[in-house]
């Protein structure tokens, strides 16, 4: 088990439980490692909202509930999105043109909670100097 703590992006669950995709198996393995306690992850309430939104929108309500409940159990913390987070996200957006609002919220939440690394398949996180991105294809992490 690593002592490092990570922020878990919603796309890991989207790939693991979505349509057949080359990232499906690596993301499922990653979730297994989290479930086994090998990797410590946190997330925020916005990620939970993204999970509900995505799977409700494709009429997979039961899976939305299951994944939501699993995230609550798997994560050592579910951070609320606070005014401090949205203020920091606004600052990040003003100097990082390669991120969208939702990702800026995640980054701000990470930074405000002393988490430096996001586990995500989204390469645009690589362009944000304030954080690191851990690719699900690169597991296991050191």
Short description:
It is built from six helices and five strands, in the order βααβααβααββ.
* Helical residues, percent: 40-55%
For the biggest sheet, the summary is: 5 strands, parallel
Strand order of the largest sheet: 3-2-1-4-5
Q: Give the overall shape.
A: globular
Q: What's the average pLDDT?
A: 93
Count of alpha and pi helical runs: 6
Judged by helices, strands and strand pairing, the structural class is alpha/beta
- Measured by DSSP, the beta-strand proportion falls in 5-15%
> Radius of gyration from the CA trace?
14 Å
Which blocks of ≥5 consecutive residues have pLDDT under 50? none
Q: What's the SSE pattern?
A: EHHEHHEHHEE
Intertermini distance:
9 Å
Q: How many DSSP E strands?
A: 5
What features would you describe in this structure?
- With 142 residues, the chain is of the alpha/beta class.
- It has six helices and five strands, in the order E-H-H-E-H-H-E-H-H-E-E.
- The protein has a five-stranded parallel sheet with strand order 3-2-1-4-5, with helices on both faces.
- Helix 1 crosses helix 2, helix 3 runs antiparallel to helix 4 and helix 5 packs across helix 6.
What are its keywords?
single chain, 142 residues, alpha/beta, five-stranded parallel sheet, 6 helices, globular
């Amino acid at each position: 088990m690593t002592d490092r703590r990570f922020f878990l992006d919603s796309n890991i669950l989207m790939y693991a439980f979505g349509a057949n995709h080359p990232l499906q198996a690596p993301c499922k393995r990653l979730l297994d490692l989290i479930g086994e306690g090998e990797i410590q992850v946190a997330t925020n309430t916005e990620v939970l909202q993204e999970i509900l939104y995505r799977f409700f929108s494709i009429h997979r309500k039961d899976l939305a509930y299951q994944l939501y409940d699993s995230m609550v159990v798997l994560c050592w913390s579910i951070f609320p999105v606070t005014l401090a987070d949205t203020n920091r996200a606004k600052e990040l957006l003003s100097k990082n043109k390669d991120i969208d609002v939702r990702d800026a919220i995640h980054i701000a939440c990470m930074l405000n909670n002393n988490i430096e690394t996001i586990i995500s398949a989204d390469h645009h996180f690589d362009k944000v100097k304030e954080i690191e991105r851990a690719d699900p294809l690169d597991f296991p992490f050191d």
